[in-house]
């Protein structure tokens, strides 16, 4: 019997102890993060972070399901949310429900996430009606960056602010259990948090949000490409890996590795791997 944090228990965490969220894409990282976070998001950022695609549009349902399965195998406690990739939900509520069902049935995750507000409210309501919890995602929406003319912070113009309030309200009314607010002016994100009854999870948003999320590779310093300003780097794993590779290369070239402890002698008792 699983004792995971449920989407409905995340829903109750409005204005309380902040909800700690990180992305995870793999079994070992899920194992490491599970003790520390409330929620693991298998973000479609996996397409960029692990697969080297230019944008998140490189994610497919199959890709999300494979990583969702790995993260489920590696975690026991966290609420696991899997992103719905671009093209899997926008067309109709029916398409959205079919894709959400596939993700949940094939991974066993607690919930799905999709991007958009007013334009996907019917999809959110339909997935929720099918019994699958949904996390919303408003503000900067990476799946729309191409059609939006680049990565633009939201809430800097009047129209933009009005649209954010409409989107936040639409997501809440459609029955989402929480909503990610990304790349949004701080005061606007803080006020949106006060205006809606479901927990807001900020990324490049506000410290007043009900929780925070970061991309794991960004926060541990693994991301090779430029990282956004809102990322705080808590470790520098790029240099750790680079130094390990340099040491290994030098030892192979100098025949220092493998040493006596890394090879097998003919004696049977010393033959254990
Ligand atoms: O795909 C992702 O990593 C995300 C989070 C950054 C919210 O959607
Ligand atoms: Na995402």
TrEMBL record:
Pfam assignment, any one: Pantoate_transf
Location in the cell: Cytoplasm
Gene Ontology MF terms in the entry: 3-methyl-2-oxobutanoate hydroxymethyltransferase activity
Catalytic site positions: 182
Enzyme class of the recorded protein, top EC level: transferase
Necessary cofactors: Mg(2+)
EC number: 2.1.2.11
InterPro entries: Pantoate_hydroxy_MeTrfase (IPR003700), Pyrv/PenolPyrv_kinase-like_dom (IPR015813), Pyrv_kinase-like_dom_sf (IPR040442)
Pathway given in the UniProt record: Cofactor biosynthesis; (R)-pantothenate biosynthesis; (R)-pantoate from 3-methyl-2-oxobutanoate: step 1/2
Substrates-to-products reaction catalysed: (6R)-5,10-methylene-5,6,7,8-tetrahydrofolate + 3-methyl-2-oxobutanoate + H2O = 2-dehydropantoate + (6S)-5,6,7,8-tetrahydrofolate
Superkingdom in the source lineage: Bacteria
Coiled-coil ranges per UniProt: none
Binding note for cofactor: Binds 1 Mg(2+) ion per subunit.
Residues annotated as binding 3-methyl-2-oxobutanoate: 44-45, 83, 113
Amino acids binding Mg(2+): 44, 83, 115
Keywords, comma-separated and alphabetical: Cytoplasm, Magnesium, Metal-binding, Pantothenate biosynthesis, Transferase
Gene3D superfamilies listed in its UniProt record: Phosphoenolpyruvate-binding domains (3.20.20.60)
HAMAP family: PanB (MF_00156)
Complexes and interactors: Homodecamer; pentamer of dimers.
Similarity remark: Belongs to the PanB family.
NCBIfam families in UniProt: panB (TIGR00222), PRK00311.1 (NF001452)
Annotated function: Catalyzes the reversible reaction in which hydroxymethyl group from 5,10-methylenetetrahydrofolate is transferred onto alpha-ketoisovalerate to form ketopantoate.
Stated name of the protein: 3-methyl-2-oxobutanoate hydroxymethyltransferase
Species, as recorded: Mesorhizobium robiniae
């Amino acid at each position: 019997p699983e004792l995971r944090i449920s989407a409905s228990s995340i829903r109750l965490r409005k204005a309380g102890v902040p909800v700690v969220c990180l992305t995870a894409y793999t079994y070992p990282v899920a194992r490491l993060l599970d003790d520390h976070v409330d929620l693991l998001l298998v973000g479609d950022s996996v397409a960029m972070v692990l697969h080297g695609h230019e944008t998140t549009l490189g994610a497919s349902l199959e890709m999300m399901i494979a990583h969702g399965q790995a993260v489920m195998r590696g975690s026991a406690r966290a609420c696991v949310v899997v992103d719905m990739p671009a093209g899997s939900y926008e067309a109709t509520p029916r398409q959205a429900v079919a894709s959400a069902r596939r993700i949940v049935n094939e991974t066993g995750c607690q919930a799905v996430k999709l991007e958009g507000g007013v334009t996907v409210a019917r999809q959110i309501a339909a997935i929720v009606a099918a019994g699958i919890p949904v996390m919303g995602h408003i503000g900067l929406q990476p799946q729309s960056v191409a059609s939006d003319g680049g990565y633009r912070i939201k809430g800097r113009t009047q129209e933009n602010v009005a649209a954010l309030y409409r989107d936040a309200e639409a997501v809440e009314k459609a029955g989402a259990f929480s909503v990610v607010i990304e790349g949004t002016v701080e005061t606007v994100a803080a006020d949106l948090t006060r205006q809606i009854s479901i927990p807001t999870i900020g990324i490049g948003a506000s410290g007043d949000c009900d929780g925070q999320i970061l991309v794991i590779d960004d926060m541990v310093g693994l991301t090779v490409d430029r990282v956004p300003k809102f990322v705080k780097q808590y470790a520098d794993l790029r240099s750790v890996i680079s130094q390990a590779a340099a040491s290994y290369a030098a030892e192979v070239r100098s025949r220092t590795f493998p040493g006596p402890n890394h090879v097998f002698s003919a004696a049977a008792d010393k033959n254990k791997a």
